[in-house]
Amino acid sequence: MNRDWESDYEEEWKYYSRKKRLDKGFAWTSEAVQKLRNLNEGLSKIQDTLVEKMREAYEIFSRLEKEGMEFLYGFKVVGWYDFEKSCVTEYYELEEEPTKAQEKEYRRWDGIASHSSEILESWRLVLDSETGDFMPLSKIRIAHTKWLPLFPDFPKQESITACSFLAHLIENDITFSNRDLIACTPEDFSPVLRIVLNRPVSELYDGFANGFRSSSLYRKFPYPIAHMVGDMLEDRHRCVGRKTFEWNEQNIQRILEVNGWLWKRWNEMKRWMKELSAAFKTLAKTNPAFKNYWMEGELVYQGSQATDIATVEMQKAMTCFADFFLCAPLTCESDSRREIDDLQHDDMEAEGINWNFEIFREHLSEEQRKIPFHYLMHTLFVDDLIYTFQDLLRMREEDWKNWLTFSFWEDD
């Protein structure tokens, strides 16, 4: 066995068996119970703050939609708890070499946060702008409490009614030991809020622990089903692939048409970002919560109509597994030098880059080669093994979607 791989595996296993291992011999003293009670009270207050902030965000962005930003229709406000111990923050701010004790504490808490991220973020609240209210499971989470003990050895005479998030963490996480829990304070947790546009949002876990990028979508499939589905889609690509594609003028024109759709959507998303950026700057004059902002935009194909070579179900799986994420997203930040950063296209003209090379360029005329190709044309139809040229011919313009995620915050 490769020693590096074995070492990584052993390190992973330490965290996945951590709670069970460390809870042996742990005693719920009155001091430990009080610390848990304090944590619960603090987390309950954070939940109240999160709900309040989500409602405020809904009101603000609904108003912007009514004032002319029609593209905001259907936005969702997503909120959850973030976790980071102060020792981790302090570690990154050290100007000198950390001591062994600092290194040990950093590794402990950074590892706990990393290995618990999926559980932490699988508890979330979603407010749907179309209904103007929280989604059903979110309503339950807001109102739900659970009586402790959730631990078999918890003192019967002690009584704690845990907030929904703490109960979720205790019942589902396998990394936080009891000692870790009582070492946490409410200050280690903070409310996180995102505005999400166009992309599907689940009240259950769907990979947001790795961000709101399409790269997280395959997590909708449980392991090892994900690998099996991915292999089947790649087998499909080989069977329906390039060998059956005719490079005639009609098909080439269709390729150019799809490329045009991508640029149309891409430029549309840039316009949305510019409008939102201007709105944030105006809002910041009276509301410090908008002083800092961050936006990320991604273009994704979501086939909604069956074709003769792919059902809608198949196309949903293709959306999950295709490498949309390899095209760097559009980003817009309050402290960026550029109004909008477009990593793969900003300097195309200046550097003489066109993403039509390899198989496209072989079949294009001299005039057609002058047409700028979007990077997604290359990454999806040349490098990737999910979408074929036959799929490209059957794509519909309305199924290309701009996924936009943004957040805002005031100075610490």
Mean pLDDT across all amino acids? 88
Instruction: Please give the number of β-strands.
Output: 9
Main sheet record: 7 strands, antiparallel
In quaternary terms, these chains amount to single chain
Low-confidence stretches: 207-214
What's the Cα radius of gyration? 25 Å
Shape: globular
- Into which percentage range does the β-strand content fall? 5-15%
Helix segment count? 15
> Helix- and strand-based class?
alpha+beta
Helix-strand string: HHHEHHEEHEEHHEHHEHEHHHHE
Task: Give the termini separation.
Answer: 48 Å
As a percent range, the share of helical residues equals 40-55%
- Across the major sheet, the strand order is 3-2-1-6-9-7-8
Could you please describe the fold and organization of this structure?
The chain is α+β, with helices and mostly antiparallel strands and 412 residues long. It has 15 helices and nine strands. The protein has a seven-stranded antiparallel beta sheet, sandwiched between helices. The protein has a two-stranded antiparallel sheet with strand order 4-5. The two termini are 48 Å apart. About 2% of the residues have low confidence.
